[in-house]
Design brief:
Helix content is about 65%, strand content about 0%. It has about 375 residues and is an all-alpha fold. The protein has one domain (about 10-160, about 185-325). The longest helix has about 40 residues, at about 180-220. The radius of gyration is 32 Å and the shape is globular. It starts with a helix and ends in a 34-residue tail after the last helix.
């Protein structure tokens, strides 16, 4: 028994140090968070001066004063106060740099360096105004830090494409010195182990968020009696579409059931991830919950951050299958649009006339009547 457990633990350790896990999932994290923040910055581009610029209501002086009285370390204070400037030129250059970094993150260009720059961008914009944000900004900061340690550029990136093109023509020579070979293998294992550890931390972080949210909900009376969603839909701050909110709030029994399902789905999710089938059911429920939050409550950034974070629980086989379906989709749509050709009707040949009798197609002379 002890030997079997030791062998199993040794196998798991070997797998975590040799084989990187969730390579496509980590690529989706990189693409998702980079694209989400890029859309966010482009969406707020007309309002950038009022939100983060030198003339913002939360002035650069207030921002630096707030950071000076915080418990952050010196270099973290520098990151958080990067945009606290009175220079319009510096602010505009910083904004342009942020857009370029987010685009490079999506495309997977020099992913290691880009991921560090992405942390700089996210923390700078998050810390520029302490009163902006919807909860998703805190999760975004955490995920951007974790992505620094993730090898997210091995799949679905320009880095991976460049390596594939250079692989057959310029193979990397193995070190002839045994010491250098050992160091290269050690480096490879450290990178793999760091990647796997960061993926596990991201998954654990998502489970903590869902579990903590469910426990907080379970302590409230409005969640206990199923009326929480009803009251949220009648809160002016979250009534982005008043007509839609009133329509949904009118189905009291349905939203009470949804409230209970939400709590059970969140509290059960940390345990369901170990099931190959049940986790897909809960992921679908949580996806519907986040989409509802984005549309009904007007909190799209938070919902997007959580939806992207959930992708880490989907195995590589799922993403490969989804990729095959997407590649076949244009051909299937083209097949549906193409009208089916009617089969050609071949006329049957005329039967041959029998001997001794006139054929059906032969001309028959009219009888001559007597005059």
């Amino acid at each position: 028994m002890i030997r079997a457990v030791a062998a199993r633990c040794g196998h798991i350790f070997e797998e975590l140090t040799i084989r990187p896990i969730a390579q496509y999932g980590s690529a989706m994290l990189r693409i998702g968070y980079g694209l989400l923040y890029l859309i966010f910055l482009l969406r707020e581009f007309p309002n950038r001066e009022e939100l983060w610029g030198p003339t913002a209501a939360w002035t650069p002086a207030l921002d630096r004063q707030y950071a000076a009285h915080s418990d952050w370390y010196g270099w973290i204070k520098s990151w958080y106060t990067l945009l606290a400037t009175t220079s319009d030129t510096r602010f505009e250059l910083s904004y342009a740099f942020a857009l370029i970094v987010c685009a490079a993150m999506v495309l997977g260009v020099r992913t290691r360096a880009t991921s560090v720059a992405f942390v700089l961008v996210v923390t700078a914009f998050t810390g520029r105004d302490a009163f902006l944000g919807d909860g998703g900004d805190n999760v975004m900061v955490l995920m951007s830090i974790y992505l620094v340690f993730v090898a997210s550029g091995r799949r679905l990136s320009l880095d991976a494409r460049r390596l594939r093109r250079a692989g057959p023509t310029a193979p990397k020579p193995e070190p002839s010195n045994p010491v250098l070979a050992e160091l290269a293998e050690l480096r490879r294992r450290i990178v793999t182990m760091t990647h796997n550890a960061a993926i596990l931390v991201i998954g654990f972080q998502m489970c903590v968020i869902y579990g903590a949210a469910a426990l907080w909900k379970a302590q409230g009376a409005v969640w206990d009696n199923g009326t929480a969603i009803y009251y949220v839909l009648h809160t002016d701050w979250f009534r982005v579409w008043p007509g839609l909110s009133d329509e949904v709030a009118g189905h009291s029994t349905t939203i009470a059931i949804v409230a209970y399902v939400t709590v059970f789905a969140q509290i059960g999710f940390p345990f369901a991830i170990f099931s190959k089938r049940l986790k897909y059911v809960l992921l679908a429920l949580l996806l519907g919950m986040h989409l509802s939050i984005a549309v009904l409550l007007g909190i799209p950034v938070f919902s997007g951050v959580m939806i992207v974070g959930d992708s880490v629980f989907l195995p590589d086989a799922f993403w490969l299958g989804a990729g095959r379906i997407l590649r076949r989709l244009p051909d299937q749509l083209r097949t549906l649009r193409t009208p089916r050709a009617e089969p050609a009707v071949t006329p049957e040949p005329a039967p041959a006339p029998e001997s001794g009798s006139a054929g059906l197609l032969e001309p028959v002379e009219a009888p001559v009547l007597p005059g």
